[in-house]
Design goal:
The structure is a single chain. The protein has a three-stranded antiparallel beta sheet. The relative contact order is 0.07. 63% of the residues lie in helices and 8% in strands. The protein is mainly α. Keywords: Coiled coil, Metal-binding, Zinc, Zinc-finger. It holds the Pfam family zf-B_box.
Length: 304
């Protein structure tokens, strides 16, 4: 089969293929499923799907709770997403490659010669899957339909005016893009590891400081407790000493009062016996010389 490749240098063809492969990869991996454009401020949901920040906000609208992913429909209890730093630089590259896409389209048809030589080289390699329609090896990738085709499919009606790339170069470009993503992820992993170590150091320092402060606080309060206990004992001893000093004269006075009461009770009892005396002579003998009557008489006379 003849392929149309006239007036284009090998270098130009390689450049066109490289740009086309970049654009293909950007379309496949850097396109927002909502706006169908290269991500702008890409954010990642908890389900690992990515969207433009403005697109996911528009999809969710004013809804604050029970929001879902537009792709997998996973439901989340609340609005939550994180900025995907890995995709930011890749999206910038994708937009730059889209600007160069016109050059790729101008040179797209000139890639057939390179495809034919690629076909010859791959004949010596492992067996390839065959085209279902033409039963020939699948050696090309249609950028428009995003399917593998054989050399005869290029001129068939379904692929008229489409752009094609050798399978090997499409695979290589995908690997290159994955390596680029891998490099970014490795850098991010290193950064996160450093942040993890720093956070672990800060946690360790905080725990050490807290433990030291706890010991200091416990020691200070132990001193306060000992001081208060000593103060308590001292005040109680003072109180008991003062009590003994105040109680001694009171108890002495109480003893004298009790003795006086006993004496009075005895005298009252004797007087009662005298009063009950029936014999007048005996009564006078007893009472005339009774000192109590003399005292009472003095008191009575003084009151008169």
């Amino acid at each position: 089969m003849k392929l149309k490749l006239q007036g284009i240098t090998e270098r130009g063809a390689v450049t066109a293929m490289a740009v086309s492969k970049h654009v293909l990869n950007m379309i496949e991996s850097l396109t927002c499923s909502v706006c169908q454009s290269v991500f702008v401020e890409p954010v990642r949901l908890d389900c690992e799907h990515n969207f433009c920040k403005s697109c996911i906000q528009k999809v969710w609208g004013k809804q604050r709770q029970a929001v879902s992913c537009p792709e997998c429909r996973q439901v989340f209890p609340r609005r939550s997403f994180t900025s995907n730093k890995v995709l930011v630089n890749l999206c910038e590259e994708g937009r730059q490659l889209k600007e160069d896409r016109s050059l790729c389209e101008e040179q797209g048809e000139n890639l057939r010669e390179d495809t034919e030589s690629e076909h010859l080289r791959e004949d010596t390699e492992r067996g390839q899957s065959l085209c279902e329609e033409h039963r020939e090896k699948l050696i090309l990738f249609c950028e428009v339909d995003e399917i593998l085709i054989c050399a005869k499919c290029v001129d068939s009606p379904p692929h008229v005016d489409h752009r094609f790339l050798p399978v090997r170069k499409v695979v290589q470009k995908h690997k290159d893009l994955l390596k680029l993503s891998l490099d970014s992820m490795e850098k991010e992993k290193k950064n996160q590891s450093e942040l993890k170590q720093q956070q672990e150091r800060e946690i360790s320092e905080l725990e050490e400081l807290t433990g030291s402060l706890e010991k200091d606080i416990s020691a200070e309060f132990a001193k306060i407790h000992r001081y208060l206990e000593d103060k308590e004992k001292h005040l109680i001893e003072q109180l008991r000493t003062q009590k003994e000093e105040d109680l001694r004269p009171m108890e002495e006075n109480l003893r004298r009062i009790e003795e006086e009461l006993v004496s009075l009770e005895e005298k009252i009892s004797n007087l009662c016996v005298d009063i009950e005396q029936q014999d007048n002579v005996s009564f006078l003998k007893v009472t005339v010389y009774n000192p109590i009557l003399k005292i009472v008489g003095v008191i009575v006379n003084s009151s008169l």
